[in-house]
Specification:
45% of the residues lie in helices and 15% in strands. It is of the alpha/beta class. The chain has a seven-stranded parallel sheet, with helices on both faces. The longest helix is centred in the middle third of the chain and has 29 residues. The protein is globular.
Length: 250
């Protein structure tokens, strides 16, 4: 069952929208009436987003979230095209997995820059007009790893745990301006990334999930729509776990 959400007259920016969860969010938000801007680091990704949103009000735009020197121009162009951002979905993410003794310092830096520092910078970039208009939604994509930890992912787990703390602190700062800040923490979701995992590993994963299946990108997108809607206006600073019971059973 789909959540019925009216996002007409709202402008939503989704980072990392050319695949997986980001792509599902972009399509669902556009279907709900939002003007959607989806970002990708590649021209091919932008073309895909453009085709995805072709029959809706939205488009793709190139952005590397680790290059803050480009943000001023990026947001200036968006403002000229569609106006200020009402809803920011920080979805872009990166993994550089390895056990700590084999992890390179650059792998730590790259993951923290993409997954955590970019959220700080992008949120800061959209907040001024949100405060002026006394409305805003910031939805950050966390992970079960941010609460549970995961071996071979000290960088990723640290970045996702940081998102939870960031979201809670920012939620307290801007709540009086009618701006909400929340985190969604998915577990294992069926995407092109999980499709690359071995059959044996996936069988092992399913033994850890009480519901004995992977989540769908649609299920994550539906929660994003809910948090973006008026129905969630009194929810802020929360971390919503969507993992089939994985976190509860750990």
């Amino acid at each position: 069952m789909s959540v019925s959400v009216d996002l007409n007259d709202k402008v939503m920016l989704i980072t990392g929208a050319s695949r997986g969860i980001g792509s599902a969010i972009a399509e669902k938000a556009a279907q709900s009436g939002a003007t959607v801007i989806g970002t990708s680091t590649t021209a091919h990704g932008v073309d895909y987003i453009d085709s995805l949103l072709a029959k809706y009000d939205g488009f793709g735009k190139r952005l590397d979230v680790t290059q803050p020197e480009t943000f001023e121009t990026f947001f200036s162009e968006i403002n000229e095209q569609v106006g200020h951002i009402d809803i920011l979905v920080n979805n872009a993410g990166l993994t550089r997995d390895n056990v700590i003794f084999r992890m390179k310092d650059q792998d730590w830096v790259d993951v923290l820059e993409t997954n955590l520092s970019a959220i700080y910078r992008l949120s800061k970039s959209v907040l001024r007009p949100m405060i002026k208009n006394r409305f805003g939604r910031i939805i950050n994509m966390g992970s079960a790893a941010g609460s549970m930890g995961n071996p071979g992912q000290v960088n990723y787990s640290a970045s996702k745990a940081g998102i939870i703390g960031f979201s809670k602190a920012l939620a307290l700062e801007v709540a009086h301006k009618n701006i909400t800040v929340n985190t969604i923490a998915p577990g294992f979701v069926a995407t092109d990334m999980t499709a690359k995992l071995t059959e044996n590993y996936m069988a092992h994963v399913l033994t850890k999930i009480p519901m004995q299946r992977l989540g769908s990108t649609d299920e994550i997108a539906q929660m994003v729509l809910f948090l973006a809607s008026d129905a969630a206006a009194y929810i802020t600073g929360e971390t919503i776990h969507i993992n089939g019971g994985l976190y509860m059973a750990s």
